[in-house]
Amino acid sequence: MSIGRNDPCWCGSGRKYKKCHLDFDSKITAFALKGFEVPDFDAIRTIEELEGIRASAAINTAVLDHVAKHIKVGMSTEDINTLVHDFTVAQGAIPAPLDYEGFPKSVCTSLNNEVCHGIPSPDIILKEGDIVNVDVSTIYKGYYSDANRMFIIGETTPERKRLVEVAKECLEVGLAAIRPWGFLGDIGAAIQEHAEANGCSVVTKFGGHGCGVDFHEEPFVPHVGKKGTGCILVPGMTFTVEPMINAGDSDLFIDKDNGWTAYTKDGKDSAQWEHHILITEDGFEILSY
Ligand code: MF3
Ligand code: CO
């Protein structure tokens, strides 16, 4: 990037570069020179991009609220797909999973021992005691957002309830570890510690991801790791944190027939919560939940 001190700042503020992001960019360069991993320039959102991502994220959260209001025992996961698809389209938005690398539906619905990427079907009926993850991603005016939640169908076992809680806590402790100009590895370290302290394991084959201008962008966000390692968390980055927490072992396998659905290898349950966040100068902001 070559930009003069007196040129308008790349962020779109309308201010001169020297009065806006010059010091900020120098700080990133200084980290890089010291050997730290820093995000690509285009991972830092402009004002216009952030506005678009926020609007997309607001719709994404509203879709999940809509699902929360209507999900119930006896419903098929195809019914959830219809709820998500119709509500999203009614907002003038597009469900991001639909036709994404061949994914056939508008949302991922993953039950019990399914880790992620479950495909909605009229044959999958929600039963009392099921735990189901509904993973919603939205495109609005070209901007992407992504979040997911767990739903407990009726009453479930104490073990399943606890798994859903631990997974939620894992997301929360991961987010609480965020320091602007801190490290990406701080997030995974906090998640791993909490999961393992509760006798659970963390899936490593999938992670969070940069999200906003595209569906899946850099950086990959591991949900395990070591404090003080990985990419510097620079204000203006937008990414997901979405730990998949298993009651048993972290190993998984992918459905041979549909090429998508991931199941735990040991057949034990898995739970996941996902927020889409923005790194700020004070910490972070939740864009979609
Ligand atoms: N939140 C999920 C992810 O980032 C959404 C997947 S949609 C799919 O992997 F189309 F890829 F399945
Ligand atoms: Co995601």
List the helices and strands and how they pair.
Layout: H1 22-33, H2 47-70, H3 77-90, E1 94-95, E2 108-111, E3 114-116, E4 131-140, E5 143-152, H4 158-176, H5 185-197, E6 201-202, E7 208-210, E8 217-221, E9 238-241, E10 244-246, E11 252-254, E12 262-264, E13 270-272, E14 275-279, E15 284-288
Antiparallel strand pairs: 1-4, 2-4, 3-12, 4-5, 6-10, 7-8, 9-14, 10-13, 11-12, 14-15
Helix pairs in contact: 2-3, 4-5
The protein binds 2-amino-4-trifluoromethylsulfanyl-butyric acid and cobalt (II) ion.
Residues 97, 100, 103, 108, 117, 135, 137, 146, 209, 274 line the site of 2-amino-4-trifluoromethylsulfanyl-butyric acid.
Distance between the termini: 34 Å
CA-based gyration radius: 20 Å
- Strand composition percent: 15-25%
**Overall SS class:** alpha+beta
Mean pLDDT: 98
Bin the helical content: 25-40%
SS element count, helices: 5
- Which shape, going by the Cα principal axes? globular
User: What quaternary form is this?
Assistant: single chain
- The SSE string, one letter per element, is HHHEEEEEHHEEEEEEEEEE
Bound molecule kinds, no repeats: 2-amino-4-trifluoromethylsulfanyl-butyric acid, cobalt (II) ion
